Amino acid sequence: MNENPLNLVVVICHDLGQHLGCYGVPGIRSPHIDAFAEFGVRFEKSFCTAPQCSPSRAALWTGRYPHANGVVGLTHAGFANDLNPDEIHLAQVLRAAGYDTHLFGLQHEARLPERCGHEHIHGTGTCAKVADDFVSFLGSRTDTRPFFAQIGFAEPHRPFPHDDVDALPPDAVSVPPYMPDIPEVRDDLSEMEASIASADRAFGRIVEAVRSSPAADNTILIFTTDHGIPFVHAKMTLYDPGIEVALIMSVPGAAKGIVRKEMITNVDVMPTLLELLGIPIPGNLHGRSFAALFREGDYTPNDAVFAEKTYHTYYDPMRCIRTDRWKLIANFENAPWQETSPDYFNNAKSYVEVSKALNVPYSVQYHVPYELFDLDADPYEKSNLADSPDHRAIRDGLIVRLRNWMRDTGDPLLDGPMAQRAYDTRMADFKRVN
Fold first, then answer.
1. Which CATH code for domain 305-423?
2. Are 116 and 89 spatial neighbours (Cβ–Cβ below 8 Å)?
3. Residue 420, pLDDT score
4. Rounded alpha-carbon distances, angstroms, from residue 199 to 167, 168, 176, 229
């Protein structure tokens, strides 16, 4: 460990994407997050590796893709997915390096929070409560070791909790261009905006607590999220609104108020943090450190990022490659074009009503094998060019690159259908019955 080790605080929200004022979304009450962006470094082209909660978080905290770390779907309840036994969470690495490690609030990357390796687990609750717990911890700690705080907010995940903030009128919110402007969407966006405002308040308290503490000048502070907002064409899809995530970092000694335009993916975060903290980077990580961007050192930007989905509520395997201009999505099952929850009134009303409003023809209600988008001409990914003869060479070149990535990272999907852990546990129980 360095002689003067840095502390690390990471705040991660649920289902937020880049739906913030500092990322250009109008009418969002996110003043504390926006002010933090002015104080730190905001990554404009930041992506997750999976558009669902558990797989994305598992990739963030292990630096390895979901198909390799074992979390190919949700970890809670009957889905039963979990980190492989030999996967190493960032908390485990830091604890072994002498850090005082703490989990505040939600984790969603493992079946049990104890699996992640934190020395102290503080419980869950609203974002306000989680912020209270962190502020209390920071104000009373006497431990002289450097500390790592992983802080997880449930907000703004559906049903969009916001006890301490009133919702705006539905006509006051902006509807993203990739969604139809219908009442059900506006109602949901209004509730989600209030939940974001609640999370913003809690984050502001965390920032203030750090800045007014003795740790102010030697703490890396990060704000991020797991994947895109929970609406059609976003969460549970590999379109940009599903895989774009907020990433804002404040690093002691680094320039402030900077916007970086390099493509970053969340498997890059763990090796970056380890390099910034002066801790050896494990050799099996898939991500690449971008620590040089905080030191104005030499850095070769990613020329492509990759993302995947295997399971959310059902088997829907797909993989994608995204360059600055092109996006190729390969769909490996004839599954519905948009996954929805069966809970219409509490979790999926807008999904269903959007489907009705779009009136998608039956012939395209299921995935086509390939989707190819020119992001310069078609930023909302509406015009699929995969079958265009003029774009065949581009499509095939991206297919080869995507297949090579799957091979190089040991993606089991290349060898056949993948079962999630629910299958393993249920089949084992089925075979036990005499």
1. 3.30.1120.10
2. yes
3. 95
4. 13, 15, 21, 14
Angle at 156 between CA 69 and CA 65, to 5 degrees: 15
Mind listing the pLDDT tens digit for each residue in 210-253? 999 999 999 999 999 999 999 999 999 999 999 999 999 999 99
- Is-cis flag, bond preceding 156, omega within 30? yes
- Give the Å distances, CA to CA, from 285 to 63, 68, 267, 317, 318: 5, 10, 8, 23, 22
CB 352 within 8 A of CB 340: yes
* In the predicted structure, residue 34 carries a pLDDT above the cut 60: yes
Separation between Cα atoms, residue 12 and residue 323, nearest integer Å:
26
Per-residue pLDDT, 343: 84
By C-alpha distance, which of 191, 178, 304 is closest to 241? 178
Handedness of CA 284, 259, 51, 132 (dihedral sign): positive
Distance (Å, rounded) from C-alpha 402 to C-alpha 79?
27
Instruction: Measure the CA–CA gap between 306 and 67, rounded to whole angstroms.
Output: 12
Label residue 87 exposed, middle or buried (CB < 10 Å: 0-12, 13-18, 19+): buried
Residues sharing a CB contact under 8 Å with residue 190, sequence separation 6 or more, in sequence order: 167, 168, 169, 170, 172, 173
Sign of CA dihedral 52, 245, 414, 330: positive
Please give the structure tokens belonging to residue 338. 């948009």
Residue 2 pLDDT: 59
Compute the C-alpha angle 251/254/257, nearest 5°.
Answer: 90
N residues, the chain: 434
Residue 92, φ and ψ in degrees, nearest 5 = -70, -40
Whether the predicted pLDDT of 47 surpasses 80: yes
Domain boundaries, the chain: 7-294, 305-423
How remote is the C-alpha of 228 from its chain's centroid?
A: 7
For the domain spanning 7-294, the CATH number is 3.40.720.10
Sheet hosting strand 247-250, strand order edge to edge: 120-121, 100-105, 147-152, 7-13, 219-225, 247-250, 41-47, 258-265
